[in-house]
Please model this.
Amino acid sequence: MMSFAQWGNALYAGDKSYKIVPRRKLFVGVAAALVAVSLVLLAVFGLNRSIEFTGGSQFDVAHVAEQTESVASTAVASTGLASDVKVTKVGSDGIRVQTASLNSKDTATVRQALAEAYSVDDTDVQSSSIGPSWGSSVTQKALQSLVIFLALVALLMTVYFRSWTMAASALLALVHDMAVTLAVFVITQVEVSPATIIGFLTILGYSLYDTVVVFDKVRELTSDLTEQKRYTFAEYVNLAVNQTMVRSINTSVVAILPVAAILVIAWLLLGTGTLTDISLALFVGMVAGTYSSIFIASPLLVMFEDRKKRVKEHNAIVASSRGVQGKGDEAEAESTPVRVAPIRPGKRLSNAHQPSRKKKSQ
Model:
């Protein structure tokens, strides 16, 4: 059994290759299905938006002897001032209660009821109120940030790679990452707060960075594509994905481990809502971003490029040179093992092979 380093060397040299691009229809189809399912879940169940988005009143009860959520629900219901009450545990001795917007008098009544229910001082119950207009403003700014981010990404990648197909592939991969992350929040019903939006934009940047690394290797390998007749564009892209796979895995593991630690601590020790929103967004987004840069962005790039006349003609030339007639590029890559990059690690030559230094004339 080869070590991780040997496995990475074999992938880079082409001795070992995973057929990711040849199976692009499968991976892209699965991604499209995930996006569709995510949209259905979002439409049916919706997101659990925090009070910053919906507006309302919030009460934080500290130093409680027992974190029983039903006590808070009963106390608020006894006042007759709010019917829709959301209660969550905070840390090891805190309770958070969220209700519809209340005026100053009703807020004082609810504070008193919570203090009596949990047998704490009035000073241990803190209240705050957020108006609906502020919540709608936060939602609008979040959507504007997302649109501006995607527009700048499309412009930057088009200029940097001089290819609209790479920009389109990267953006569609980001759509997959956003959909998967939203689906997890819908299923778990973890609150979506402004901190979640920050994490959301962060994971988009991470996913984009991973995709750019793969595309940079694709550009390097395909710079002289039409000057050779041995390999197709799809085969070079598959090589690029395999060559950068170890790097993507290493980078992802290093980034995900601390985020996973924060998520576990937040979920088990600090209570729902404390760091859970941003850590869950980062964790899911990083995993989805790593997957999409390998299994979605690169296959999509090949699908777009295969529609170009130049690539079609070159694929036909390569197939003809191999003696394959009537087969598409994908079928050819599936049926014929091709060593795309016969690379061997370099070795240091002896001192006798090193260039000699000329003596300076006196």
